[in-house]
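#struct-pred

JT: dropping the chains for the assembly here, can someone run the whole complex?
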Amino acid sequence: MALDERKLEVLRAIVEDYVATQEPVGSKALVERHNLRVSPATVRNDMAVLEEEGYIRQPHTSAGRVPTDAGYRLFVDKLSRVKPLSPAERRAIERFLIGAVDLDDVVHRTVRLLAQLTRQVAVVQYPSLSRASVRHFELVPLSTTRLMVVMIAETGRVEQRMVDLPGPILADDVTELRRRINEKLVGKRLVDTPPLVQALVEESGPSLRPPMTVLSTVLLETLVERTEERIALAGTANLARGGLLDFQGSLRPILEALEEEVILLKLFGEVEPSMTRVRIGDENEIEDLRSASIVATGYGPGSIVVGGMGVLGPTRMDYPGNIATVRAVARYVGDLLGQG
Amino acid sequence: MALDERKLEVLRAIVEDYVATQEPVGSKALVERHNLRVSPATVRNDMAVLEEEGYIRQPHTSAGRVPTDAGYRLFVDKLSRVKPLSPAERRAIERFLIGAVDLDDVVHRTVRLLAQLTRQVAVVQYPSLSRASVRHFELVPLSTTRLMVVMIAETGRVEQRMVDLPGPILADDVTELRRRINEKLVGKRLVDTPPLVQALVEESGPSLRPPMTVLSTVLLETLVERTEERIALAGTANLARGGLLDFQGSLRPILEALEEEVILLKLFGEVEPSMTRVRIGDENEIEDLRSASIVATGYGPGSIVVGGMGVLGPTRMDYPGNIATVRAVARYVGDLLGQG
DNA sequence: GACTGGCACTCACAAAGTGGGAGTGCCAGT
DNA sequence: ACTGGCACTCCCACTTTGTGAGTGCCAGTC
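RK: done, full complex below.
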């Protein structure tokens, strides 16, 4: 059964009204608020069809209709009109991010900004090392057998690790190691470095070999494989808005899920370049988040994606608005990283 | 009016029962569960006195009694018996913290551990730089006019900042700067360094003076004054336990307060050495936390305090248990930092 | 004087009953 | 294909009622 133009219009109206009022919407109210040019009775027939197709449902026999997850999905895919940000919002974004002093600060501000603008829970993944490129490596001798390795990424992120060497090392050798490593790795994306690191070991003369071997292990293990992914979170208080109607009464499972970084990384970290992904209710693999929806997108300088960000809220959320906001913020932060 | 021995005993019983059951406790149930050797009627008289004194109250006429904030306070100060940790708990602490690989990891694990053991919201302040001492300073030349300053604290925390120099600098001069800074500052507590930094500038010869001046500004501003304090949080889901009875229905204000790092720092950062501080309900200065209690303590290697940690929960919480747990964990983490 | 048993009283809470109203489905008419 | 009308459903808010836990007080006992 093909849904004709007007039925889709009805669905859109239902979603919009329900999102706004949080109450089941009936045929009469619908024709009043939107100027569908038909009578309530006609709308009722349309609703019956929409219900049959699974896009809306009645909470109980004699109540208005509420969108199902499938209904929201159709709405998001086909029906929602883009909601451009208000100038005030644009200004808010600029003002909020412009004073950031370092990477931590950028992420922090971003996540708070998102939470504030969307009135949902916001999540921002720290720029992932593995997809960023290397600006500089530094070796700091702490003692004759101990080095600190510091890596500065293009995004401004800094990582450091201690390394215990197999034997004492001369200052000149440290200098040489530093030179070689930088020569080989600077400018490369971290994810591309493993073969290069391997090569570094092979190209080393006998005197540098042992320390370089140890170093390579550390580089591979801690900087590439154990790409420690961090996440920033804000706006959890927004979950408690809207009474307890959303999330069927208990915030517990949601809060629990939000504490699992692994889960968040899965949700917000798996983003394709420049795609905004919307997961609605049931579509979520995580059991605890079946009553929530997620809007996520990637961000990074230019077309490179170095991390994900997005918001999480009740399935009954303002999808067009949130999508627009998340995109705009992501884009702005991406540009910021490009300059930094 | 002095409260005699038995009245205090009654108060203790009320607190313990109420914490356990979350229901107003009546005179009859009280004599049954605790072996007070008197009749319900007597207990009722005692209760009347306790109520007059403001230690307990009735939610409504003809209900049992519930402790007031003042009641909890008296209980904590005078009546609670220390609850030693179970061997299982001790083992849990060790097992949980023993695998930590770096400082971030320690803090992370600690906060989760606390949340798990107490079933409350846990907060851990990252070891504060200002109270920790310096292990090493490193200057990394990024270009002829740009340095990266890296500071490694005794606690393992690492901080870095970029510095733009007034003019080009020679490699040898960088080495000399590094030597001087380390000579002067290593081993000192960061909070004690400002005069030393000042001295460094004054002792510099003409060639080193300009870069040293810039460096000193950065050291003072970013490493000492702007002691960026960080906080880790876990267990927010525990707020949603216990229905909505705690926190008078709305988690919103609590969640909001928990997002304000400034507030958390105030609550958990202001700790006197080796004192465990308990704030109960009303005693809280923060309006939004009037329905919550906080158990906080300082931690650090030996008798030095480098940060605070603790838990936050409903006023109706297991004070003796939480106090014991927080203390034990703080102590364990302190020892860990001492070795690190 | 301290404690106890007894008794009348209070009042939240749960269960059951009631009416109103929003909303529906369907059908006959245009 | 759409509309007006009508009977029907059933949630929800409201009131009523009964029950029981808990209290305060008082007179009596050790």
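JT: nice. Chain B touches chain A through 25 residues (CB under 8 Å). The longest strand of chain B covers residues 134-143.
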